[in-house]
Amino acid sequence: MDNDYELVRDVPDAETFCALREAAGMSPRSLDGARRGLPNSVFGVRVEYGSESGDGREVVGMARIVGDGGTVFQITDMVVRPDHQGEGLGTAMMDELVAYLDREASEHAYVNLMADVDGFYERWGFEPTAPASRGMYRRIGGDGDGGDDVGNE
């Protein structure tokens, strides 16, 4: 991650969150849901790009942790705008999330995520749960069929 990028320990606003997901081709979230949900994040980061002068800084990536803050955590909403992928932003964000978990999660806490990139999350010790268990989901609303974009959580 070069000097034009800054990692900020906070989630973006709801409008930016929804726009980032759309830009990356991820399944949509409602603006109302984002406004309600983002403040409940256990921890989150965003990556800003650009300079303080001129056009200002633009949010180009984010990731967050949700859960109960003690025994269960989920890494979610890991997104980098396509025009900024390949710059190490996802790695920098995961490093920060894992550092938070290493400091704050209790012994024997359970941390999960829905991986849609093969070979990325394993470097932080994540491994598939199958065959011992399998992830499941249920989507609320939308087209009513439950969706087919599980990896785009």
TrEMBL record:
Any GO MF annotation of the entry: acyltransferase activity, transferring groups other than amino-acyl groups
UniProt cross-references to Gene3D superfamilies, sorted A to Z: 3.40.630.30
Keywords linked to the UniProt accession: Transferase
Database matches in PROSITE patterns: GNAT
PANTHER family found in the cross-reference section: FAMILY N-ACETYLTRANSFERASE, PUTATIVE (AFU_ORTHOLOGUE AFUA_6G03350)-RELATED
Protein name: GNAT family N-acetyltransferase
Organism the protein comes from: Halogeometricum borinquense
